[in-house]
Amino acid sequence: MRNVFREFLYLRKSDRKVILSLLCVIVVALGVIFFASGNEQSNGLVAADTLSVKRDYKDSFRQKSYPERPKTVYVRTKVVYRDTAYQRGRALHREEHDSAVAHYQVKIKPGEHIMLNTADTTQLKMIPGIGSYFARKVVQYGERLGGYVSVDQLDEIEGFPLDAKEYLVVQDAHPHLLNVNQLSLNELRKHPYINYYRARAITDYRRLHGPLKSLQDLRLSKDFPPEVIERLSPYVAY
Hints:
The chain has eight helices and seven strands. 48% of the residues lie in helices and 6% in strands. By secondary structure, it is mainly alpha-helical.
């Protein structure tokens, strides 16, 4: 060690300065590493302790304020109401709905009849196969026609159960009449049997030839074939 020190003293002044500078740098670097590692350990302990305290506080607060609730068990069931029917989680179509709901209502027996033109929705729902939907359709279509003249007109309602027709009768029909010589084109076309082209044929005939005396006056028009004239005849006046 003494030899090393003596050799250091015999070195040139510039060499001694370089060696001392290197030693200082090494000492400073070791000191920085030592203090940095000590701070990380202390900070890690403080953060962990703080987190543990916060969790303990939250758990205790939760247990006091929000006690554990009992578990709920859900069971899927089939439900049929008076006006709504569901099966296996899907809504039934209108026809299926009508059939399902109608099954749970009081029905008339075979051989019994209901007057079609005077029946309301409550009476119509007493017919097997007819529920709320078709009962409303029958009443609404009868109002548009101006009254039924035949039970077979129910075939014109889309999806109507044909077996239900045997429970309905039409007697002494007095439908509301349309005066084809006075009504305008828009008023004529409101009837289910008169579309825009038939209404225009009527107004054109009146404009060119005067008042109609019969629907047979329109037989030459392509919009009034024989079956249309026969079906519309009970509803017109002149």
